[in-house]
Design goal:
Length: 449
C-alpha cells in the first residue's frame, strides 16, 4: 500500500504535459488495449478469434456501442462475458470516474488538474462540485443497475437457474443503463418481444442512462419544473417528445409490415414499437430485427441514432440538446430574431457555435467513413450508411453489415466508434491547439443560400 501511495504521489508531482481532451482519449485507448488482450485469451472464448476481432469487440464494448461480427453469448465464455461487462461499465460511466473513485479510497486529495480532467470527461461547465458529482454518479449507477438486475432476475432465474439467471440479469442491466447494446441472447432481446417485465425494465434502464447524470441529480433535488435549469427542462421535454413521436411513428409505419410488426398480435405490436422507438437513440438492443423495417423506419432510426441522448450521460450521438439548440436557431433565423430564446431564456452565442460545430464535424466524419466503406465493402449503400451512423451514435444496431465487414471496414468502424464515444469537439481539441486572439478584423461580405 505504501509503495502504491508513493507511485501515486510521484505521478501527482510530475508535470502534466497532455491537454485534458488528449489525456482522456489516451485513457480510452489504454482501456481498449487491455480489453483486447483479455478477450484474446483462450479462457475468454469458446473458439479462437482473431486479434482484429478482439480489438473490434474491445472497442465496441469500451465505447458502449454493441456492434459485433458474431453472437457474443455463443462466442465468449463466462470469463469473456465478464470482461465485456466490465469494459461496458468502465466505458459507460467513464475511466476518470473510476480513477477518482480509487484515489478517494486511498485517502488522497483531488488536485485541480484532476478536477479539470473530470470536468472535461463529464462535459460540465465548471469544476465546482465535480468530485461530488462523480461520487453521486458511481453510487447512483451501481444502485440503478442492481435494481434493474433484480427485476430482470424475475424473468431470467426461472428460465436459466439462479447462477446464470442472476448473471444474465446483471449483464443486461449494465448493458442497458450504459447504452451498450450488447446482449447474451441470439438476436438480441427478440425472445422477450412481448414480455412486460423485460421491456419496462430495459426501457427504464436505457432512459435513465441516456437522460444525463446532471439531469438526474437535479430532478432528484428539485421537484418543481420551473425551478429546473434550462438544460434539464430541455432534456426532460425533448426526451418525452422524441420518445412518444418515435414510438407512434414505428407503430404506424410498421403496423402492416410483414417483416416486422405485421404478424404480431396487437399487444406485441405495442411492446415491439415501444422498445424499437426508444432503444435506437443509443442503446441498440432490439426486440425485432431492424433489417425488416421499412425504409421510412430505417431513416427514422438513423436520425435517432445520430441525435443520441443527453449530455453527461452514457450515450453517444450529437446529443439531444445540441439538436434542439440548432433547431431553435433555425426557427429564430426564420422569424428574423437576433437571440435564440428557449422557455424565456436566451441561449449564449458560444453554445450555438459549439452546437453547430459538433454537428458539422460529425457529418464530415460520417461522410468520410461512408466514402471509405463504399470503396472497401461490397454491400448496399443503405446498409453501410446505417452501420456508420450506428457506430457514430454508439447505438450498436446493425442491419447486416457488421458480420461481413472486411478488415479495412472493421478498422474504419472502430475509428467511428471511438470518435462517437470521445465526442467531436473533445477529439478535435485533442489534436489542435486552442488560442485566444485579441485582434478584431473588419467584416467581409460572403453571400450564402
Amino acid at each position: 500500500m505504501q509503495s502504491t501511495k508513493k507511485i501515486l504521489s510521484a505521478l501527482d508531482v510530475k508535470p502534466f504535459t497532455f491537454s485534458p481532451p488528449l489525456f482522456l482519449s489516451i485513457l480510452l485507448v489504454v482501456i481498449i488495449a487491455i480489453g483486447t488482450l483479455l478477450l484474446k485469451l483462450p479462457i475468454s472464448t469458446v473458439h479462437p478469434i482473431s486479434w482484429l476481432d478482439a480489438l473490434f469487440l474491445s472497442t465496441s464494448a469500451s465505447t458502449v456501442t454493441g456492434l459485433s461480427p458474431f453472437e457474443t453469448g455463443e462466442t465468449f465464455t463466462f470469463f469473456g462475458q465478464v470482461v465485456l461487462m466490465l469494459l461496458i461499465q468502465i466505458g459507460g460511466i467513464g475511466v476518470m470516474s473510476f480513477a477518482v473513485f480509487f484515489v478517494i479510497l486511498l485517502g488522497k486529495k483531488i488536485s485541480i488538474r484532476q478536477r479539470q480532467l473530470m470536468q472535461e470527461a463529464l462535459n460540465v461547465p465548471s469544476i465546482g462540485g465535480v468530485i461530488r458529482l462523480v461520487s453521486w454518479i458511481l453510487i447512483f449507477s451501481f444502485a440503478i443497475e442492481l435494481i434493474g438486475a433484480f427485476f430482470l432476475a424475475f424473468r431470467f432465474v426461472p428460465e436459466f437457474g439462479w447462477g446464470k439467471g442472476l448473471f444474465y440479469g446483471l449483464f443486461h442491466s449494465i448493458s442497458g443503463f450504459n447504452q451498450a447494446g450488447f446482449s447474451l441472447f441470439p438476436g438480441s432481446m427478440h425472445h422477450y418481444l412481448g414480455d412486460p417485465i423485460v421491456n419496462l425494465t430495459m426501457v427504464t434502464m436505457i432512459t435513465l442512462g441516456g437522460i444525463g447524470f446532471t439531469v438526474l441529480a437535479e430532478l432528484l433535488s428539485t421537484h418543481r419544473f420551473r425551478k429546473l435549469s434550462l438544460h434539464t427542462q430541455v432534456m426532460v421535454v425533448g426526451t418525452l417528445v422524441i420518445n412518444v413521436l418515435a414510438v407512434l411513428a414505428i407503430f404506424l409505419l410498421e403496423y402492416r409490415n410483414p417483416n416486422s410488426l405485421g404478424p404480431l398480435s396487437l399487444g406485441d405490436k405495442f411492446w415491439a414499437a415501444f422498445f424499437q422507438g426508444i432503444s435506437p437513440r443509443t442503446a441498440g438492443l432490439t426486440t425485432i430485427d431492424p433489417a425488416g423495417l421499412s425504409q421510412a423506419s430505417l431513416l427514422l432510426t438513423m436520425l435517432m441514432m445520430f441525435i443520441g441522448a443527453g449530455s453527461t450521460s452514457t450515450s453517444g450521438g450529437i446529443k439531444l440538446t445540441t439538436f434542439m439548440i440548432v433547431i431553435a436557431q433555425v426557427f429564430t433565423f426564420l422569424k428574423g430574431r437576433r437571440e435564440v430564446v428557449i422557455n424565456k431564456r436566451a441561449v449564449n452565442h458560444q453554445v450555438i457555435v459549439r452546437a453547430v460545430s459538433i454537428i458539422s464535424i460529425s457529418i464530415i466524419v460520417i461522410l468520410i467513413a461512408l466514402f471509405l466503406l463504399c470503396i472497401s465493402e461490397n454491400q448496399p449503400f443503405e446498409v453501410i450508411l446505417f452501420e456508420v451512423i450506428s457506430a457514430f451514435g454508439t447505438a450498436g444496431e446493425s442491419i447486416g453489415a457488421t458480420a461481413h465487414l472486411t478488415p479495412f471496414g472493421k478498422v474504419v468502424i472502430m475509428g467511428v466508434m471511438f470518435f462517437g464515444k470521445v465526442g467531436p469537439l473533445t477529439l478535435a481539441f485533442s489534436v489542435t491547439r486552442r488560442s485566444h486572439v485579441d485582434i478584431r478584423y473588419p467584416d467581409g461580405e460572403i453571400y450564402t443560400g
